[in-house]
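Q: Here's a chain of 221 amino acids. Please give me its 3D structure as tokens.
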Amino acid sequence: MSEPLGEVAPRVMSVQVGRIAPLGARGVPSGFVKSAVSGPVNVAPLGLHGDEQADLTVHGGPDKAVYFYPSEHYPSWLKDVPRHEHVLHAGAFGENITTLGLDEQTVAIGDVFRIGSAEFQATQPRQPCFKLGLRFNDNSLGRIMLQTGRTGWYVRVLTPGTLQAGDEIEVLRRPNPRWTIARFNGFIFNKKATKAEIVEVAGLEGLAEVWRTGLEESLSE
């Protein structure tokens, strides 16, 4: 049974994939630039069919297989950086799934979703790297993304299948409803987090392994 997260029934606004290509003036290999896909898209354990990542040490992998971003953020971006109006459309931030009705205040670590015949689990927020600056030729966007909390979130694929734009997003399970993406973003930059808080976060069901490992290591220092 779906668990409602807000007044609007969540759904997929747009689906995007991208191939590896030179990015920015430096020509850095990247799959950052995405194009919208019409019709059904196959979802495999490591992401959407046709989507690629150049640097697998920091992008992609099981815990960052698919990137979700709320469509509701785009008007705020247009207000903050109107100079990039020509770029600010679905997929501009490298997301695979542009959503309606979900955001960092409602989605929590470990949330399980069904879209089409595929199932996903939220694992962590996005932490922007230098490629966001290359995409827009503007290094201020990473700072703005972190300051505003408009980060979006990554998911792992629990059940491969197919999905497409317009599909409803059904929330199946919420093991950690108090640990929203927004709260986790705040935790990341909280230099005064207590040992108890670190232990709690490290034990969250669904948390990306890179975060779990890092937190557990910090406890042993």
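Q: Can you summarize the key feature?
A: The longest strand covers residues 118-125.
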